[in-house]
Amino acid sequence: MLLAGDIGGTKTNLAIYDAENGLHAPLAEATFPSDEYPGLEAIAREFLSQVEYDVELASFGVAGPVVEGHVKTTNLPWEMDETNLREALGFRHVYLLNDLESIASAVPRLEPEDLVTLNEGRPAQHGAIGVIAPGTGLGEGFLVWNGTHYRAHPSEGGHTDFGPTNETEYELLRYWQARKGHVSYEWVCSGIGIGNIYTFLKETGYAPEPDHLTEKMAATDDSTPIIVQTALDHGDPLCRAALDTFVSILGAEAGNLALKILATGGIYLGGGIPPRILPVLQTSHFMQAFLHKGRFAELLRRVPVKVILNPKAALIGAAAHGLLQSR
Q1: What is the C-alpha separation between 2 and 18, in angstroms, rounded?
Q2: Of 72, 144, 63, which is closest to residue 97 (Cα–Cα)?
Q3: DSSP state, 68?
């Protein structure tokens, strides 16, 4: 049996799987507040003490670059090592993989109801697949066919240089360059990024911030949910402009990813934000930015684009990776 985990800065999802029941029917599952534990080992021990299964393997998706079986998490003060975890928990094998590798590993195993299509396209059999996932940060990964199955690969593409495509985005880049130096796609295309776009628009006088919104912003450490919900409710032009700008940047970077890996198998939008802003993604802003690639627009028109709705995709992917490795 396999212990799979999706390790996030806010919460850690753990579940037990076996090959017989498959990836969509975990034998046990639980969620833990990550910041209340000193590390993954403590959470795993607590979870395993609550169940009665003989677990031999573990596979964990973690936000951060995994190098030679070791990772320092991006959004938690944790360091993890495959060998240390294996010995501490008494497992036969432990696999650590980047969180985008986890989401990408889930893509070939998702059900139709787990997806919403933004562009039908014409997928090529065994074509490369790209995954871009805006959540707290921005993750990017991809899958290639190895002759028998798709294999997922991580990247740190979200930390590449932001490339503006219109005058507003050029001003956005200059605004943040003057204040922080390097401006990555993650800085303007993530949960953090929505707040950064909003700050830029407010500070440069795009529109006044209404008093009721000022009060809400002052009462929270995370303004992104307020900005998104207000934009979706059509309650404020500043919030809507921030969300529209975010969607255009996301579309452009998704198109960049499609060209870089020649994603004839499709582009999949993961992470927590796309399902929450689906009505905006289904307007023309996203696909216009995705296709705005000059003479390669027609090639991109044939690329399927889908939104992953299943919030457990990373957990499913981690389990899929572990079960595949154990064969």
Answers
A1: 6
A2: 63
A3: T
Query: Residue for token digits 């998706």?
Result: 61
Inform me whether the pLDDT recorded for 326 exceeds 80: no
Burial 130-144 (b: 16+ CB within 10 A, else e): bbbbbbbbbbbbbbe
**CATH superfamily, with its number, for domain 2-105+312-325:** ATPase, nucleotide binding domain (3.30.420.40)
> Maximum distance among all alpha carbons in the chain?
61
Mean per-residue pLDDT for 55-68?
93
- Amino acid in the structure at residue 223: S
Q: Are 132 and 254 in contact (CB under 8 A)?
A: yes
Report CA-CA distances (Å) from 82 to 58, 94, 97, 227, 284.
9, 5, 10, 39, 44
Domain boundaries, the chain: 2-105+312-325, 113-308
Judged on CB neighbours under 10 Å (0-12, 13-18, 19+), 3 is buried
**67: Cβ contacts below 8 Å, ≥ 6 apart:** none
CB count, 10 Å around CB of 93? 14
| 113-308 maps to CATH 3.40.367.20 | yes
| Count of alpha carbons within 13 angstroms of residue 150, beta-carbon side | 26
pTM listed for this prediction: 0.94
Position 28 scores a pLDDT of: 96
Reported as a single tens digit per residue, the pLDDT across 146-171 is 999 999 999 999 999 999 999 999 99
Rounded mean pLDDT, 211-236: 91
